[in-house]
Design goal:
Helices cover 39% and strands 14% of the residues. It is α/β, with parallel strands linked by helices. An eight-stranded parallel beta barrel has the order 1-2-3-4-5-7-12-13, surrounded by five helices. It has helices spanning 7-13, 28-31, 44-50, 67-81, 92-95, 105-120, 136-140, 147-164, 177-186, 202-220, 243-266, 288-294, 353-366, 395-411, 461-480; strands spanning 21-25, 85-89, 124-128, 170-175, 226-232, 236-238, 301-304, 309-313, 319-320, 323-324, 333-336, 373-378, 423-429, 448-450, 457-459.
Length: 482
């Protein structure tokens, strides 16, 4: 199966600057399986997924994609795909079963072998140190609501850095701390399933402290790779022109974007509008020492982009972008649809032009404090069958990726709306159909179809499109140097 390098591929290939990274991304809990082998301890997601009703289709991650036993097969797929880099996450509880103490050497051995296999295949490793799966023993002690978890995280990162720091090219400390804090502790849609609303905000601060300690641990160990963080950013706009909608849009922007980016990039939490300031009071007492620890120099700033958000004042439905929560209806705002856009299988608006707008707003807000940017996740799920007999035609995904890549490359090129943002690369979410958190196996984001009964991997048409793009990009770059 091949996809011809048509005008769209050739046009995109001509937009890539030299050194631009094309990659794919995954997460340990979503693909590895083998949850109780080789000394791995349980995580917050193990426990959450076992509770009746938490996973929409009742699926289990016990096997998932069986990547733990099939990593060689998956690396061969990536080599065929022609990507420059693979972003994977390390399971904290596989390396430190209780989240504290000595390393489980068998767990570290798996990631050691994975790193070496990637390098042997010519694929640069990007390791994410935390992608939501907190060791269950730490969760029982308060999880990210406890300041002690930040310290435990720093200790864990030191163990990882000692083993892998000489070979991993790029490090991501945290993936989407907003999702852990708001979906996990605020709304209960994700692990650990707490429903604290604004009382979840200590989980923001403690994750950011963990980030700072992780950066220090990596640098103390002499890790050679570039260090960054991956925040999910959603451009926010009010549904109407009135004061209340504007105030609630500002509040949502603070919750989703600024209480994470501001301390990381400026060393300060933003000042909320006076009327909503009591909701954020837990962040107002942070010490100067804490803010200095959070505000570590970064080599890149990771942006996970999926959709824009439109906000109206007043309560709404139970629906959130990640699933349903009765707590959502108790908030003083709600999300309003974008009828002008098509939607993904999750119901998320397909709005690639907002990615360029997002980068412009980040640069306007943070100026020289904004490091070079990496799109650390971008992708879409669409309704697809559980079994296939050949290559799946997923034209919607091809159009999604072409649209987002085209917009972000044009936006950051000379004359573009974000021309002064240094864009380093783009990672597709995701390589394989996987266990998609609370949606189980019902949402398929992969370039590769996975039959979750047989574990057969079948590249989709989008896989071959991305391969064609990679090949065309390399051909053009070779032509420029000859």
């Amino acid at each position: 199966m091949t996809v011809q390098a048509g005008p769209t591929v050739e046009h995109l290939a001509g937009l890539f600057p030299a050194g631009f990274i094309l990659g794919v991304a995954t997460a340990a809990f979503q693909i590895e399986g083998s949850l109780d082998v080789d000394g791995r301890g349980p995580s917050s997601w193990d426990a959450f997924a076992e509770k009746p009703g938490t996973i929409s289709d009742g699926a289990s991650a016990a096997v998932a994609c069986d990547h733990y036993n099939r990593s060689g097969e998956d690396i061969a797929l990536m080599r065929e795909l022609g990507v420059d880099s693979y972003r994977f996450s390390l399971s904290w509880s596989r390396i430190q079963p209780d989240g504290r103490g000595a390393a489980n050497e068998q767990g570290l051995d798996f990631y050691d072998r994975l790193t070496d296999k990637l390098l042997a295949a010519g694929i640069s490793p990007m390791a994410t140190l935390f992608h939501w799966d907190t060791p269950l023993a730490l969760e029982h002690d308060g999880g990210w609501l406890s300041r002690a978890t930040a310290g435990r995280f720093g200790d864990y990162v030191a163990l990882v850095a000692a083993r892998l720091g000489d070979r991993v090219a790029q490090w991501v400390t945290l993936n989407e701390p907003v999702s852990v804090a708001l979906q996990g502790y605020g709304l209960g849609v994700h692990a650990p399933g707490r429903r604290l609303l604004f009382d979840a905000l200590p989980a923001v601060h403690h994750q950011l402290l963990g980030h700072g300690l992780a950066v220090q641990a990596l640098r103390a160990a002499g890790a050679i790779g570039r260090i960054g963080v991956a925040n999910m950013h959603a451009p926010v706009s009010p549904a109407g022109t009135g004061f209340k909608d504007g105030l609630m849009a500002t509040t949502f922007d603070l919750l989703v974007n600024r209480i994470f980016a501001d301390p990381l990039l400026t060393g300060k939490y933003p000042t909320p509008p006076l009327l909503v300031r009591p909701w954020f009071k837990m962040l107002g007492s942070a010490s100067d020492d804490d803010m200095q620890l959070i505000h570590q120099p970064l080599d890149f700033y990771g942006v996970n982009y999926y959709y824009p958000v439109r906000i109206a004042a007043g309560g709404g439905t139970h629906s959130t972008p990640a699933g349903d929560s009765e707590m959502m209806a108790k908030l003083p705002f709600h999300l309003v649809p974008f009828p002008e856009y098509g939607v993904t299988g999750f119901g998320w608006p397909v709005a690639p032009e907002h990615l360029g707008t997002l980068l412009r707003s980040l640069k306007d807000r943070y100026g020289e404090a904004l490091p070079p940017v990496m799109i650390t996740e971008s992708g879409a799920s669409f309704p697809e069958p559980a079994r296939v007999s050949g290559t799946l035609r997923d034209q919607d995904r091809i159009e999604y990726l072409a649209g987002h890549l085209g917009h972000v490359l044009t936006a950051t090129a000379p004359g573009g709306i974000a021309h002064d943002v240094e864009l380093l690369g783009y990672y597709v979410w995701t390589l394989l159909d996987n266990f998609e958190w609370a949606a189980g196996f019902s949402q398929r984001f992969g370039l590769v179809h996975v039959d979750f009964e047989t574990l057969q991997r079948t590249p989709k048409e989008s896989f071959y499109w991305y391969r064609s793009l990679s090949r065309a990009r390399r051909s053009r770059l070779r032509g420029k140097t000859t």
